[in-house]
């Protein structure tokens, strides 16, 4: 098969698409003919050797794919050959064939295209965990979403709106703001400021004006995906008993919080990791996938695919994503 192969971790341009042996499956695994592949920020980290877990080289990277089941192991009960499925794996998605453990493989609704499924599984699973499980967003609450024009941010906006919350989309450009508003955001928060002190005041003033109180009552929840100064400034927009949910550090800088500020202001900072739930809380993964499919079929969730490229153009796809030149989601297609 043709696949992206990592022989040594390094810059994106160091890796290529090449001929690679077809994967063999075990008794609890599914062999999938890949049709569409979702491109995620963790994939970029994996290619560069910056992800928190590393697979032994050489290997095929990639986590999100959708396609058709070609073969199943003797112990597989979740799907059968010919089924249309989406899978979220640790490695292996960036190839024409993918071996997936059956617990990471989910049968698709008939009216959900491969491209939509591959684009949605990681960002929507992540957003559902952040919004429903960790943030516990409720009807009538105000939620600020940072990185709101990215895959997870847009998914978080859609889930928050489905829960009846009011959403403030924190963005850095008017174009990103338009996309966030098209996905249901109620108002925009501009994140441009010359330094941290100015950013704190800039965000606090905008949130205060948006919440309508004399001095602004603050947000109930912040879904935070950027890190760095924006994380610290986001703490200042939370109201009493506010919750800041961490989903990532797309800005590249991992921040820290002062415990005394959290104590004095009755604030919670909550991590919302996704992958660990396959081992520790699998029922939450199943619930996230089911809710995403339900909302998609009902027309209440969309993947915001802004570019579809052939597998061979993966370097350009990653360049656009890492350089933050692309809003929404990029999908790689596999010709058949």
Brief synopsis:
The chain is an alpha/beta fold and 336 residues long. The chain has ten helices and 15 strands.
List the helices and strands and how they pair.
Elements: E1 2-5, E2 16-19, E3 29-38, H1 41-48, E4 64-72, E5 84-88, E6 97-101, E7 105-107, H2 114-134, E8 142-145, H3 151-162, E9 166-171, H4 174-182, E10 187-190, H5 196-211, E11 219-224, H6 228-235, E12 238-246, H7 259-264, E13 268-271, H8 277-280, H9 282-297, E14 305-310, H10 314-322, E15 329-333
Parallel strand pairs: 8-9, 8-11, 9-10, 11-12, 12-13, 14-15
Antiparallel strand pairs: 1-2, 3-4, 3-6, 3-15, 4-5, 5-7
Helix pairs in contact: 2-3, 2-9, 5-6
Radius of gyration: 20 Å
Low-pLDDT residue intervals, each spanning 5 or more residues: none
Number of helices: 10
Q: Distance between termini?
A: 12 Å
How many DSSP-defined strands? 15
Strand content: 25-35%
Total tally of structural domains: 2
Helix content: 25-40%
Note the overall shape: globular
Overall pLDDT confidence? 93
CATH third-level topology of the largest domain = Quinone Oxidoreductase, Chain A, domain 1
Which architecture of the largest domain would the CATH scheme give at its second level?
Alpha-Beta Complex
């Amino acid at each position: 098969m043709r696949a992206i192969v990592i022989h040594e971790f390094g810059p994106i341009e160091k890796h290529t698409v090449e001929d690679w042996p077809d994967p063999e499956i075990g008794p609890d695994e599914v062999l999938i003919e890949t049709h569409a592949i979702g491109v995620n920020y963790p994939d970029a980290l994996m290619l560069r050797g910056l992800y928190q877990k590393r697979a032994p080289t050489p290997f095929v990277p990639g986590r999100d794919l959708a396609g058709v089941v070609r073969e199943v192991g003797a112990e597989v009960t979740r799907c059968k050959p010919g089924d249309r499925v989406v899978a979220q794996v640790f490695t292996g998605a960036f190839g024409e064939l993918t071996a997936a453990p059956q617990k990471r493989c989910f049968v698709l609704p008939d009216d959900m295209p491969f491209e939509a499924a591959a684009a949605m599984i990681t960002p929507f699973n992540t957003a559902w965990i952040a919004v429903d499980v960790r943030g516990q967003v409720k009807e009538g609450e105000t939620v600020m979403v940072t990185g709101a024009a990215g895959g997870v941010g847009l998914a978080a906006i859609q889930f928050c709106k489905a829960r009846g919350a009011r959403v403030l989309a924190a963005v850095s450009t008017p174009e990103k703001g338009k996309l966030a508003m098209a996905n249901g955001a109620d108002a925009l928060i501009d994140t441009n400021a010359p330094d941290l002190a100015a950013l704190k005041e800039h965000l606090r003033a905008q949130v205060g004006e948006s919440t309508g109180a004399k001095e602004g009552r603050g947000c109930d929840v912040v879904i935070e995906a950027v890190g760095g100064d924006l994380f610290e400034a986001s703490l200042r927009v939370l109201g009493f008993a506010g919750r800041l949910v961490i989903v990532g550090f797309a800005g590249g800088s991992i921040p820290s919080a002062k415990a005394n500020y959290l104590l004095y202001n009755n604030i919670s900072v909550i991590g919302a990791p996704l992958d660990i739930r396959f081992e520790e809380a699998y029922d939450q993964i199943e619930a996230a996938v089911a809710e995403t499919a339900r909302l998609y079929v009902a027309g209440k969730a969309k993947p915001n695919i802004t570019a579809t490229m052939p597998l061979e153009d993966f370097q350009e796809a990653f360049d656009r994503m890492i350089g933050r030149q692309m809003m929404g989601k990029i999908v790689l297609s596999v010709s058949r």
